[in-house]
Structures are given as C-alpha cells and as structure tokens.
Amino acid sequence: MTEKDQKEQILSALEMKSLVKQKVYDQTIEVFNLLKEILQEIKNEFNSEIQVKDARVGFEYKERSQFEIELKVAGDILIFSMHSNIFEFDREHNVWKLNYVKENSLYSFCGIINVYNFLSDSFKYNRLEDLGYLITRIFVNLEQHFFVEGKRQQEYLYNNFGKSILTKEILKDIILRIINYAIEFDLLVPPYDNVKIASVGQLNEKVEYHKLKTGKRLGFKFNSDDVS
User: Fold this and answer.
1) Alpha carbon distance 123, 92 (integer Å)
2) Strand 111-119 relative to strand 146-150: parallel, antiparallel, unpaired?
3) Which residues contact 41 (CB under 8 A, 6 or more apart)?
4) pLDDT tens digits for 47-104?
5) What's the burial of 30, exposed, middle or buried (CB within 10 Å: 0-12/13-18/19+)?
6) At what angle do helices 168-184 and 3-49 cross, to 10 degrees?
7) Residue 203 lies in a domain
8) How many distinct structural domains can be found in the chain?
9) In a domain, 55, yes or no
10) 214 lies in a domain?
11) pTM of the model
C-alpha cells in the first residue's frame, strides 16, 4: 500500500467515525432533553397526588449543568448524568454477539446516560465523604436504538438493541423503575467493625457537619447482576 493509499484510508476512516460519533451525540442529547421533560412531568404528577402534607415528602427537579439533572425524591437524590463523549464496547462485551452489531460495527458506538443514587442529606450537609451508587446506565446509538444496564431493567437488556427505539413511553417506564428501586434501596446500618474506631478529626467533623461517611449500603459494590 502506498503512502497516498494509507493517507486516504486514514482520512476516510476518520471522517466516517467522526460523522457517526456526531450523530450518536445528537441522538443522545435528544434523549437527554426528553429525559428532562419526563422528569418535570413526573415531579408535577406525583406532587399533585401525594397525600402526606409534609414539604420533606415530595419531588424536586433541578438542572445542575448542561449534562446533569437531579430529581429529589424525599430523602433520595437521583442524578442523571450524560457523558459528552461517545464510547465503543470492549471486544468481550455481550453487545458484539448481536447480529445487529455484527452486520454493522458502527452501530456499537453509543452515548451514555448514567443514573446515580445519593442521599439528599449528603448534599444538604455537604458530606463530601458520603457514597452514591450507579444504579442504571442507558446506552443510545446513532439510530436511537438502546439498551439498559442496571437494577430491575430486565426488559431493556441486549436483546432489544437494534429492535426498539427509545420512545418517551419507554423512557418514562425506565425512569419509574429507577425511582421505585431508589425508594426500596434503604440505608443500612454499617457493620460494627467498620465504624468502631474514629479519629478526633472525624468526630469533630461529625459534630460540626455530621460527616461520618454514609451511604445507602456501606461496602456495597455495584454489580450489574441483572445483565446476562
């Protein structure tokens, strides 16, 4: 292969991948904007139907930045974070087993929306050591086909990739499952041995800011155990 041929091959591949990645970004930002719309609708819908007359029990919506939005659900905060970059899967990933991707590898490029679950008090009291957990990842490709990794998302795993478009109805269903999971994902007492020793500094911080490390499940390691 001549130097000219190599240069043309590089330019062709570069242009193709760049166009695909831009298209994936456009599709992902479209989904993220739809997500904003749905979260605001959910906030209004649930707040109008909640029977408990307590300001601490309810939904609050906030846009933290261009790529990050927050839904407060009583004592929980769900943060939906869209990554600005586009990703491809490693060769061991299950997505490569799908005929949809085998037929065109460019379909494997995806944007990602991560969903994290934190305690609202972690932000209220500025407890910087507190833990949050990734509970869902939503992947979107250039055709707005999608799949979901995470807790209680069985209907939206790899077998839908290449078959289903991420519509408003599907996205709302995914969000409601996420909210339900977060509500049921309770704060557990940490093991005694994990907290039996504390420094003077930690206790001083605790008195001033309630900063002993807190998370819904201290020591819990997220595993996509619903993913085959």
Assistant:
1) 37
2) unpaired
3) 172
4) 998 877 777 788 999 999 999 999 999 899 999 999 999 999 999 998 999 999 999 9
5) middle
6) 60
7) yes
8) 1
9) yes
10) no
11) 0.80
